[in-house]
Write a structure and sequence with these properties.
Order of helices and strands: EHEHEHEHEHEHEHEHEHHE
Largest sheet: 6 strands, mixed
Radius of gyration: 19 Å
CATH topology of the largest domain: Rossmann fold
Distance between the termini: 55 Å
Number of domains: 2
Bound molecules: pyridoxal-5'-phosphate
Strand content: 15-25%
Shape: globular
Strand order of the largest sheet: 1-2-10-7-8-9
CATH architecture of the largest domain: 3-Layer(aba) Sandwich
CATH class of the largest domain: Alpha Beta
Number of helices: 10
Length: 330
Amino acid sequence: MTVNYPPRVDLARLPTPLHLLPRASERYGRGKRIWIKRDDLTGSTLSGNKVRKLEFIAALARQRDCQVLITCGGLQSNHCRATALVAAQLGLHAHLILRGEPEGVPDGNLLLDHLAGATVSCYPKRQYHHHLESLFEQWQAHYAEQGLKALCIPTGASDGHGIWGYIAAAEELVQDFANAGIEQAHIVTANGSGGTQAGLTLGAAIHQLPATVWGVNVCDDEAWFLNKVAEDIAHWERAYECRAPAVTPRVIDGYVGPGYGVATDEVHTLIGELAALEGVVLDPVYTGKAFHGLVSELAMGRFDDATDVVFMHTGGLFGLFPQRAHYHTP
Ligand SMILES: Cc1ncc(COP(=O)(O)O)c(C=O)c1O
């Protein structure tokens, strides 16, 4: 299938490296090779999976002559931080609708949101969950009154526009696999709002990437993500008038732990282990849980029909710092 990519703004440092984790393979691999796709290296502060999606969303904002980007997420949202930095980089304004009430000095992603000059509006969780749509409308109208056009970007930039970023990443992986001598693999990624998995799953089918894509959900459950991935793909079909090939999204449920943003001691320990073993730093909200899912499922034989397992490192480093209390150093 030939794909006509829509316009994109060059924001991410691509292609990101794919490399073997030799010591992690030895420790957790049970004879398999564990690889890592370093999407944490799409940039420094403007980093992680969100940058790939925002390349297409930023182009949309330009096409529509928008001066403001409005988006939403948790207080430590990586997506909101990336949006704030993209806006600053392109001379736009970012307005972030955040879930929760900040305490003390801003830390991690929230600190960067402020540094990037974003307007930050925080709402108690109940109000956020019940009135998100009207908050978007209210702020969009607020900017319209000032003669400014605002683009509303959904949670995690996960929709039919944002998923182009991971359709393109799947194409990048075709070359990565050829270079690395990978013939068939399982790819494991964290699921937060579904767009990364939707793009990768669809992209794998479009570009004939020899891989099965698994999303480890860090919130909600399997049914929610199966539905969300289908919704994002359906939106992509409508928005770009194309027909998606048949795909089977796969979700690994069971690694959310105590809740979104809260990890078990096992996850914190694994993060410390991998950092010391391979010099790769994960975060406790997304990638730590997904990697925990990967090693646990690998041990239970889920990936036994291939010799290669690829972990998508989707970034999230700044979310580690507000949780520093879990990582005691001697
Ligand atoms: C670091 C990181 N990894 C993974 C994800 C999950 O990606 P998606 O929202 O596309 O499911 C997110 C955001 O939700 C994230 O910030």
